[in-house]
Amino acid sequence: MGAGLAGERVAVAAAVSGFDCLCLSIVPPRRSHSSAAQGGMQASLGNCAMGRGDSPDIHFADTVKGSDWGCDQEVARLFARTAPVAVREMAFWGIPWNRVVAGKGFYYKAGKKYEKIEPAERAGTITARDFGGTAKWRTCYTSDGTGHTLLYTMDSQVVRLGIEVHDRVEALALIHDGESCTGVVARCLKTGKLRVYLARATLIATGGYGKLYRESTNAVINWGDGAAIALDTGLVPIGNPEAVQFHPTGIVPTNILVTEGCRGDGGTLKDVDENRFMNIYEPEKQELASRDVVSRWMTHHIRTGKGVPGAYGAHLWLDIRHLGAEHIKTKLREVEEICKEFLDRDPVTQLIPVRPAQHYSMGGVRTDRDGAAYGLKGLFAAGEAACWDLHGFNRLGGNSLAETIVAGKIVGEKIVEFLRGGETDFKTSVVHRAVEKVRERIDAVTGSSGKENVYLLRAAMGDVLMDQVGIFRNEADLRDAVEKLQAIYERSKKIGLRSSSVHGANPELSACLRLPGMVRLALCIARGALMRTESRGAHAREDYPERNDRDWLKRTLAYWKDDRELLPVLDYELPSRVWEMPPGERGYGSIKIIASEDPGICSPRPETN
Amino acid sequence: MLADETIPQIRPVRAEAWLEFVQVLTGVALVAFMWMHMLLVASINVDLGGGRVLNLIARFFEASDMTQIGGPLIAAVMLVHFVVAARKLPLRVREQRAIWSHSLSFHHTDTWLWVVQAGTAFIILILGSIHMWTVLTTLPITAAKSAGRIQGRWWLGFYLVLLPMVELHVGIGVYRAGVKWGLIKRASRKASARFETKLALAMIAIGLVSLFTFLVLTKA
Amino acid sequence: MGRTLKFNIFRFNAEDPASVPHMDGFRLEETEAMTLFIALNRLREQQDPTLMFDFMCRAGICGSCAMMINGRPDLACHTKTKDLPAEITLLPMPVFKLIGDLSVDTGTWFRSMNEKVRSWIHTDNRFEPGEEEERMDNALAENIYELDRCIECGCCVAACGKAAMMPDKFMGATAFCRITRFMVDPRDERKSDEYFEVVGNEEGIFGCLGLLGCEDTCPKNLPLQDQLAMLRRKMGFSQIRHLFSGK
Ligand SMILES: Cc1cc2nc3c(=O)[nH]c(=O)nc-3n(C[C@H](O)[C@H](O)[C@H](O)COP(=O)(O)OP(=O)(O)OC[C@H]3O[C@@H](n4cnc5c(N)ncnc54)[C@H](O)[C@@H]3O)c2cc1C
Ligand code: HEM
Ligand code: SF4
Ligand code: SF4
Ligand code: FES
């Protein structure tokens, strides 16, 4: 399920080993959301002057710090070690990564100009740019279209290998007998007909769930289908649903993201008086502090009345004018295009209106480090849909593209091992039951005399999440949010179609089938956030501003045991088995820490395996 | 199985490349001829319709057998050009409908240019052949004979149609050949188009002046 | 501001036996910074929930939303209503198979295009995980990227008179551009003749009439005119060379 970067990388791994595989996707594969990533992908190649001396160790440390010690350190280790190989492999398949150009160059940091010299002996190797939250320049890129070239190149391998992709097919439910997953029931979005796909191994790689939120940088199909489907089984948990990242620079009003590269290259944030403020809140990292930190200070700054008032609410300014026309027109062309196309503004001479918007879901289908989902055999997950758990409570910019490729590679190989390791029994009764259940869902909607409007309910859910489960959270709001979401969930059972006919792939029917799952997921987020009485990474509680390693160094696992329930069942586990890097200070986003008292966690341990 | 391990033995069909060259080369040859032809005919204006210069030139070409050989040669080139270029013409009704409705809804200059070129092609084929047949079967070429034809009503109408048709076809043809083969680049396209328009208009003007001279000043 | 926009939208649902192709009229108040993405979603959510169209990234990146806007193919998500007259006619793109209303099947078309032009790096090398990457000049990398920017939206095909006449066969500018992308890439070891096999014919570059509908509508502003000319020259001359080399 899913033909984004993660799904396709897994498919390639399986196909190369001789297995038949098939990708389902709502959209043609090259339109998957991965193509929207502009900034870049992290791998510690250490080629460029500003990345010299980089290594998987430093990448690992940055990732763990970024996650606010919420990640699985074994996974982070594996990831950091594999990323450079993955980047080179993509180069081999055809990515035109930007390369090191020997000689003198300039770069901007926090609005000041610096000089760097690239030695001739590294010329032509894959270069990197600066991105928030990293110690070295480590983000490999192709101008402003990294996700695009990655996805196109990956899909070129899919085409080469003859891997079938069924696009405009939406998975609606997993087929399982309580122990193993043996495929999915899906609906064709061309004809509206149901289809059954049987598989020995099923992968969820459906991307993030940003579109639960009213304001999100995500594509319009990022509804969290994969997570919702997994949750539906009652057996597979969602890991850390409350860990939701916001991006500091979505443009107003459409929330189209302008890349981190703007700030990486020296763009600055300004308020209503056109004064900078990040240099006051974060004297060291300034605009380059990690996303959650920047987003939070922006919201804070707007709340102190320094926002720029506008028709769509207050916002701030992003200033890249000083980078110059040439830099903007080549290195940041997509940004220029976005401003001109969608805002009628010229970033060379004008400021860009921005505000934080939902951006990334760290949580997802919980898997072990092989990508195997908890709870069901034969079910795997990778990419943004999964909680592998590389990102913990905050993902570093550029780590998610890297995750899709690296996890895709690793999980793909593990699936191959799994397939070689045993046989699968397909039970027609199980298939039949799964199909019947989906058909009942459809009949319930088409036969309903309810008056609720699916679009209004969806908007109501988006408002609740945005306003009360957003960047700053507190108990009163979260309690209220849970109640409101429960009410929406109840109402979602009384949706009535307004369409005059439901022949074919009626878009309203699709929305109706999806909504209950989305609300359940939203409830997991709100409930998880309510229970977590600390602040960690992107999860910021105003009433519990400290990071509490003593009580909360654990990962939320949210289950939805029964359709009729109105709340998820929450369980917790330790985030990591090994503590190569014991919890400490991140070095940015100043925060009080309540230390852990577990001796097994506090002292560093050598890497196992 | 890796697909690229099964690359079939490649045996390219070269004819398409050849035809493409033949089309553009015959087109350009015809253009060169047309411009020459236009200037030669315009020599009628030099002595204000007296016809001495034109007759002199005509005699020279005939004496050196260039007309007798060149004429049919040009006709042959035209025939080849026609045969080759006709591959591109929409011959089926379905295709004609398709391009026509596409052009109507898609307000786009260059698409219209091609439609004009294809349309003029049909007319040139018929009128051009008649013209050539008449001229080449009644050699030698003299100013008086031409004037005589043009002063006849039908022939005047004939030339008033043929002239702009040819010039449109030529003007557009040169521009499009330039675009297709990259002589005209993205950066120079606008300027080239403007230049071509002026050139075509100038040619039509020269042609009209010549026709006027034949019609009014030259004695039949 | 304050205009009332009148939309004429093509409607047809092939799955509904009662449906016949026709145009439907809608009225919608224009609001500030409105794009067709905003407008169409409002129409669906407030007026007719059966209306079919495609959006994905709503940022001009994914190529999902191309349609005929007042006769011209363009991405609906980056078309501002402000730049359009008050009466807006929307049709699905031609050439591609219609799914319903404004939605067409570009996925199948582009997959088969990619298969036809064998749109991947052809090499006999094997990837060596331990080795440093092959070096490449940055200018070349940027040049490749420039040609790799096509978002497979299909506008160039919908704008192409040749494709209109030859809808099931003509490859379209996107395919030509894709081929030049691999031609300039030194990692691809294909020879001219192998490319010729793919595009050296009437369905390919020699079928192109040079109408430049593609060049003038590509929403990503790819250098199609220059690439098409380059491909025509390369393909043409590669065969002339055979004449002299006597093969
Ligand atoms: C604007 C933006 C910019 C970004 N920039 C960067 C960046 O610079 N660097 C970085 O590292 N990360 C970036 N990210 C994050 C990164 O792009 C994503 O995390 C990553 O691409 C996710 O890839 P994926 O393969 O997991 O999912 P996706 O690419 O989202 O693919 C999901 C796939 O699942 C399919 N699907 C979904 N639901 C179903 C269903 N029910 N049935 C069947 N198929 C389904 C979809 O059709 C699609 O093919 C950015 C994200 C955004 C929103
Ligand atoms: C016999 C009658 C003629 C016919 C039927 C004819 C037909 C055509 C057609 C259909 C084209 C378009 C080909 C394409 O789009 O690829 C064309 C192109 C062209 N024609 Fe003609 N033509 C005729 C006479 C002429 C004459 C008399 C001239 C010059 C004086 C001429 C010059 C050109 C040129 C320069 C081109 C462009 C070449 C190209 O696109 O490759 N043609 N012709
Ligand atoms: S230039 Fe060629 S590909 Fe482009 S629109 Fe014209 S005929 Fe089609
Ligand atoms: S070449 Fe341009 S118009 Fe054609 S598919 Fe690509 S992006 Fe779209
Ligand atoms: S929706 Fe992606 S290009 Fe318009």
Strand order of the biggest β-sheet of chain C:
2-1-5-3-4
Q: What is the mean pLDDT of chain C? A: 91
- Oligomer type: heterotrimer
- The secondary-structure element order of chain C is EEHEEEEEHHHHHHHH
Q: What is the average per-residue confidence, as pLDDT of chain A, rounded to a whole number?
A: 91
Q: State the major sheet of chain A.
A: 5 strands, mixed
CATH topology of the largest domain in chain A: FAD/NAD(P)-binding domain
Strand content of chain C: 5-15%
Specify the CATH architecture of the largest domain in chain A: 3-Layer(bba) Sandwich
Tally the structural domains of chain C.
Answer: 2
Provide structural commentary.
The complex is a heterotrimer of chains A (about 600), B (about 220) and C (about 250). Chain A has about 600 residues and is of the alpha/beta class. Chain A contains 17 helices and 24 strands. Chain A has a five-stranded mixed beta sheet, with helices on one face. In chain A, helix 2 packs across helix 3. Chain B is built from eight helices and no strands. Chain C folds into two domains: about 5-105, Ubiquitin-like (UB roll) (Roll); about 115-245, Fumarate Reductase Iron-sulfur Protein, Chain B, domain 2 (Orthogonal Bundle). Chain C contains nine helices and seven strands, in the order E-E-H-E-E-E-E-E-H-H-H-H-H-H-H-H. Chain C has helices at about 35-45, 105-115, 140-150, 155-160, 160-165, 175-185, 190-200, 215, 225-245; strands spanning about 5-10, 20-30, 65-70, 70-75, 85-90, 95-100, 105. In chain C, a hairpin with a 2-residue loop joins strand 6 (about 95-100) and strand 7. In chain C, helix 6 packs across helix 9 (about 225-245) and helix 7 (about 190-200) packs across helix 9 (about 225-245). The mean pLDDT of chain C is about 90. Classes of the chains: A alpha/beta (about 600), B mainly alpha (about 220), C alpha+beta (about 250). Chains in contact: A-B, A-C, B-C. The interface between A and C is large, with 73 and 68 residues. Bound molecules: flavin-adenine dinucleotide (FAD), protoporphyrin IX containing FE, iron/sulfur cluster (2 copies) and FE2/S2 (inorganic) cluster. FE2/S2 (inorganic) cluster binds near residues 55, 57, 60, 64 and 65 of chain C.
